[in-house]
Amino acid sequence: MGNTRSSGGLSTAQQAAKFLGVSALAGAVMAGLALPAVGALGLAAKGTVEEFDGIPANLKTPPLSQRTTILDAKGGEIAKVYSRDRTIVKLKDVSPYMRQAIVAIEDARFYQHGAVDLKGVLRALNTNAQEGGVSQGASTLTQQYVKNVFVEEAGNDKEKVAQATRQSIGRKIKELKYAIKVEKELGKKRILENYLNITFFGQQAYGIEAASQRYFSKSAKDLNLEQSAMLAGLVQSPSRYDPINAPETAKERRDTVLRRMAEVKDITPAQAAAAQKKPLGLKVSMPRSGCITAVQGAGFFCDYVREILLNDPTFGKTAEARAKRWNQGGLTIRTTLDPQAQESVQKSIKSHVYQSDSVATAVTLVEPGTGKVLGMGQSRPYGFGENETQINLSADKAMGGSNYGFQVGSTFKPITAAAAIEQGKKPYQRYSSPYKMKYPSPVTTCKGTWRNDEGATVENENESEVGPYAMKEATAKSVNTYFVQLISDIGVCPVTQMADRMGVERADGEEHNQVPSLTLGSEGFSPLTMANAYATFANRGVYCSPVFIESITGPNGKALKVPQSKCSRAMSEKTADTINTLLRGVVEDGTGKQAGLKNRPSAGKTGTTDERRAAWFVGYTPNLAGAVWVGGPGAKGVTMENISIGGVFHDKVYGADTPGPIWKDAMSGALEGKPAPNFESVSIKDPNQHKPDDDKKRNDRKPGNDNGGDKGDNGDNGGQENPWPDISLPSDLIGGGNGNGGNGNGNGGRHWPR
Q1: What is the pLDDT of residue 59?
Q2: Residues 180, 129: contact at Cβ < 8 Å?
Q3: DSSP 125-136
Q4: Which of 181, 273, 290, 499 has the fewest CB atoms nearer than 10 Å to its CB?
Q5: Rounded to 5 degrees, what are φ and ψ at 383?
Q6: Which of 67, 661, 674, 69 is nearest to 374 (CA)?
Q7: What region does 657 belong to: left with phi over 0, alpha with psi -120 to 50, or beta?
Q8: Side-by-side strand order, sheet with 549-553
Q9: pLDDT at residue number 97
Q10: C-alpha dist (Å) from residue 185 to 118, 175, 191
Q11: Are 551 and 621 in contact (CB under 8 A)?
Q12: 97-113 exposure pattern, b = at least 16 Cβ within 10 A, e = fewer
């Protein structure tokens, strides 16, 4: 055939005929019109009917993506997040000028024709035939709306967006059939409303309300004539007519719209002329989307909420379904974030650690009994600039945190103590606890036996820390050798099982290592994990999984199901009360004394890791638990010796002197004005503890006392027999000299605190 091109495609005449055939068919359906079908035109129309009939009749309209608003527990706004900035409004809430302007410039005969404007089709046919392609589609507002539905459905998939906007006969056929159905089902007003809400106006603004706010910082219902004309002019090419980047071109386009409004008699020529003399009058509100805009340093809390919606099966069975829900937005998410607690967290962080410091801090506060996360912040803000990060230092890797978390040091010891007490050990259990020792071997584990084949050793922080110690003093002084002996005695498995019941999972998601050094905090955990674990002690042994979301309202105003905290007993009340009593001693007269709260009972534990690459304080009251970590935020970490943090120089950083004060200030502000309940205390004294009157019965069975006996008593002579058969003592430490105690002085005996 002479009409085919060398490439094998249809000629210009054939394309035009096919296009006109479809248009004629559409017109016949809607308006009872029919065009003659003869020759090539008739053949093209016949072929197109088959394609047309093969398209499903119903257009599946996806929910329009909108802003999601994240609120704190009191209803205050934390941030707005969106993949597309859009706020859906009713047609009555759009300025009449805007309604007139968009119709005038895009489809002046909108109210006169059906889904297809045949006059426009004939005009486009002539243009396309002259240019040898389909460069003008004669699309009505209804057809444009249908095309935008396809674009919205494509989301951020570039290939699907290209298919939805490609100038092709096939796409036009689909567009026409769906347009016919839409006209029939929705009517003109609803189509115009939908069109104004779905259309892209540039500068990340989708829909007329977002566009009005972006360019003029006002609601769409308040747009005046010239503002409406400018926005209507953007639709054809938002980038070309961008008033921010190309103001002169934008003004020319606006004036074109004003002239067109006068031509169709929406306004008078005088009104158009007066409006054309006015400047654009922009009052731009730049896009503010995402957790980077969160108030009170709550960017990472905000990001954790996003991670929940993307990962929790409550919001969709598949990752794709959850991502789709998040991207569609339109949600109002009320969270557990307490504004008072969050403000206190941020204030404490800023007063103790500078953003520019070589180390960082992260703080998390959790409510015992509910699992509600009330505060979360860090010294490196959420962002992309210098000394900013997108890594949530309070979270596990799976929820946007660091790859491995941070070694927690001695803050893990109370978990070992809880496991031991559950196994029947008493809080007055004594161990020799020398300054330095080899790890005991063998030690039972969940998977068999651990052996110290390499002769690994463990030592205490100070050479003066020499036992024997009972659990209270060993906890207060954080004696490493005591807790290594304790875990070796009961086995590693009860400790990892206790950790699991308390929600203490490694930040990297791996299983716990079955080794005795676990008790010294050798594994990496997140501040959120540790705060929530200690909340279990505060809650008298009942663990509650952390929650961030109180409620969610969908775009339709209906409540959505949200994840709930799951609570389960991790230990007996008596065990928890015993741990609480032990940890009160830490802040009263132990390593955490600097962190003790005023005017309310508190408990907690310090922690410092090898080479001082991390320092911790984790503590609680009966109604609030919190964890503070300080350390290098990168993979290599920072050795915290001879270092300045928050303008304060430290020769060595301890859990008490940096994390402790941060914790104290954050907790004090968060609890201000709140009740100050007491802990349930228990006795941790040994009922069989040695009494002075028993000395005569024991004769030569105790070492001489360094400090001598009580006034008026004679210090006993040091014997060679181990005075405490339940304690394994090195042979060189047994025995002593003469105690000359009547005057309070003793010689030769090694002091063993009771």
Answers
A1: 67
A2: no
A3: HHHHHHHTS---
A4: 273
A5: 170, -170
A6: 674
A7: alpha
A8: 77-81, 68-71, 332-335, 549-553, 559-560
A9: 98
A10: 21, 15, 10
A11: no
A12: bbbbbbbbbbbbebeeb
The answer to whether residues 630 and 650 touch, using CB atoms and an 8 Å cutoff, is: no
- Which residue spans within 72-211 are E strands per DSSP? 77-81
Query: Cα(587)–Cα(363) distance, rounded to whole angstroms?
Result: 19
Q: Which stretches of 32-109 are DSSP H helices?
A: 39-53, 96-106
DSSP annotation of 461: S
CA distance 419 to 414: 9
Please give the DSSP secondary-structure letter assigned to residue 733.
G
Parallel, antiparallel, or unpaired for β 641-645 and 648-652? antiparallel
Taking residue 424's Cβ as centre, other Cβ atoms within 10 Å add up to 8
- Short-list 226, 165, 235, 232, CA closest to 202: 235
Bin 166: left if φ > 0, else alpha if -120 < ψ < 50, else beta: beta
Torsion over CA: 666, 670, 673, 676 (sign):
negative
Give the strand pairing for 373-378 and 443-445. unpaired
> In 10 A of CB 311, how many CB atoms?
15
Task: Enumerate the β-bridge partners of residue 332.
Answer: 69, 553
Please give the structure tokens belonging to residue 27. Answer: 């017109």
Tell me, what amino acid is at 506?
Answer: R
Per-residue pLDDT tens digits for 432-486:
999 999 999 999 999 999 999 999 999 998 899 999 999 999 999 999 999 999 9
Render the burial of 375-400: b for 16+ CB within 10 Å, e for the rest.
bbbbbbbbeeeeeebebbbbbbbebb
Rounded to whole angstroms, how far apart are CA atoms 235 and 229?
11
- Name the residue with tokens 């009922």: 687
Which residue has tokens 């206790």?
Answer: 498
Tokens representing 395 are 């979270």
**Cα(100)–Cα(225) distance, integer angstroms:** 10
Q: Please say whether the dihedral angle defined by the alpha carbons of residues 135, 137, 143 and 146, taken in this order, is positive or negative.
A: negative
Quick: pLDDT tens for 162-216.
776 676 666 677 778 888 888 888 889 999 999 999 999 998 899 999 999 999 9
Q: For residue range 536-582, what is the model confidence (pLDDT) as tens digits?
A: 999 999 999 999 999 999 988 899 999 999 999 999 999 999 999 99
Rounded (5°) CA angle 642-644-650: 50
Report the pLDDT value the prediction gives residue 135, as an integer from 0 to 100: 40
Residue corresponding to tokens 């941790």: 684
**Residue 693: burial class (beta carbons within 10 Å; 0-12, 13-18, 19+):** exposed
Which residues are CB-neighbours of 58 under 8 A, at least 6 positions away? 181
Determine the length of the chain. 754
Tell me the three state secondary structure of residue 357. coil
Whole-number Å distance between alpha carbons of 583 and 580: 5
**How far is it, in rounded angstroms, from Cα 202 to Cα 230?**
12
pLDDT confidence of residue 371: 98
Indicate the residue type of 717.
N
pTM above 0.85, yes or no: no
Between helix 269-276 and helix 225-234 the angle, nearest 10°, is 80
The CA–CA distances, whole Å, from 395 to 363, 404, 435, 508, 532 equal 10, 10, 35, 10, 12
**Residue type for 165, please?**
T
Q: Within 13 Å, how many C-alpha atoms sit on residue 43's CB side? A: 6
Task: Write the CA distances from 539 to 13, 503, 531, 550, 571, integer angstroms.
Answer: 81, 14, 12, 20, 10
